[in-house]
Amino acid sequence: MDEVRIHRGLKEVYLDRTKSSYVDGKNGKLYYRGFNINELANNSSFEEVSYLLIHGKLPTKSELIQLTEWMSVRREIPSQIIDLISSIKHLHPMDVLRTAISTLSAYDKDLEDESIQTNIERGLSITAKAPTIVATHVRLRDGNDIIPPNKNLSHSANFLYMLFGQEPDDLDAKLIDKDLILHAEHGLNASSFTARVVASTQSDMYSAITAGVAALKGPAHGGAAEGVMKQAQDIGDESNTKEYVKDLLSSGGRIMGFGHRVYKTADPRALILKKDAKNLSERKGNPKWFSILQSLAECMEPYEKKGICENVDFWTGAIYNLLEIPDDIFVSIFALARIPGWTAQVTEQLDNNILIRPLLEYVGELDIPYIDIDER
Ligand code: CMC
After folding, report:
1. pTM for this predicted structure
2. What pLDDT sits at residue 1?
3. From ligand 1's centre to the CA of 221, what distance in Å?
4. 27-61: b or e for each residue (b if 16 or more CB lie within 10 Å)?
5. What CATH architecture is 21-218+327-351?
6. What does the pLDDT look like over 166-197, one tens digit per residue?
7. Mind giving me the DSSP string for 41-65?
8. pLDDT one-digit tens code per residue, 268-291
9. Whose CA is nearest to atom 23 of ligand 1?
10. Which atom of ligand 1 is nearest to the CA of 261?
11. 224-322 falls under which CATH superfamily?
């Protein structure tokens, strides 16, 4: 057999070209369609960023109004999906989200239409509905009435409204909006890769996004924010942090919210969210979680030279916790933010499609004689 070079985990492999986002791991920078994430986080809205990612340009005022209205009237989910959520409400919110998104295809009257425009609309329609799925699940499993979406609220404010049953404080809604912007797109991460692989077989948008949700669920990808808060709760008090880190690392464990496949200096999203977590903890008069995470970050400073830095998930857990969002939907919030990114990448894939089909080097035996079952 020819000698082959193995790229385990596809580390440092370029699969294709993209204009969706640029993750500059060396310099700790992130761009969506050429715009620096800092500018977007401070000046834009999730709806505007969704437009930008999918259409490749910032919308005009009227284009943004049109998209915002289009999405706001697509927030409701079919009653059959509500029944489905109710029947599986004991599952993890990511399992419920994955199942509900997959089932949405049953209510798409144009399923045969595989045009790029229809696929974009599917992605945006799923983006509009995903917060309703997550909030409906939380309300049902907690024994509360469902709060129907309010089309007069922004995407982010409406999510908090459906979750808690009252219109959120503007600053809280703005913070969630910024958080969704920061999670919306991120190069060829595991879930976007998965969505692209599914799209490359000429499957459909529901399947690609469902697969993206499935890949995001794991703690090595989207599931870390929940783990970060679990760690903070286990630490309990700043004075325990040093011991906790020493014990965990010496037993081969990993500190959740640290490390990244691409960022080796700083994750720019974490730098933005750190300031927000600090401000929020002061605003809510609850400095405990910020202090514990700050002490954890200090203990991890020696690992910076090995390229192990705080990632986006490190501060999001504290922000969600201070906003009284249940721990087990942290990763679902990541998922509902990432749908425009998956949609943009699936569209890009379909625009210039090639079946994604890498190889595995076979290292097993060959020509093993077959032995009849009675003689084994
Ligand atoms: N804590 C302790 N050691 C770590 C950590 C960590 N969080 N992350 C990496 N390392 C060490 C690892 O043990 C290994 O050491 P050695 O070379 O001595 O064996 C070295 O760093 C390289 O690790 P790796 O797993 O080969 O690196 P990777 O690029 O494949 O890992 C990662 C990226 C995110 C899977 C990993 O850093 C990790 O497991 N982090 C914790 C989970 C986490 O926070 N995930 C959220 C990622 S950001 C959200 C997103 O964009 O998806």
Report:
1. 0.94
2. 67
3. 10
4. ebbbbbbebebbebbeebbbbbbbbbbbeeeebee
5. Orthogonal Bundle (1.10)
6. 999 999 999 999 999 999 999 999 999 999 99
7. HHH--HHHHHHHHHHSSPPPHHHHH
8. 999 999 999 999 999 999 988 899
9. 259
10. 29
11. Cytochrome P450-Terp, domain 2 (1.10.230.10)
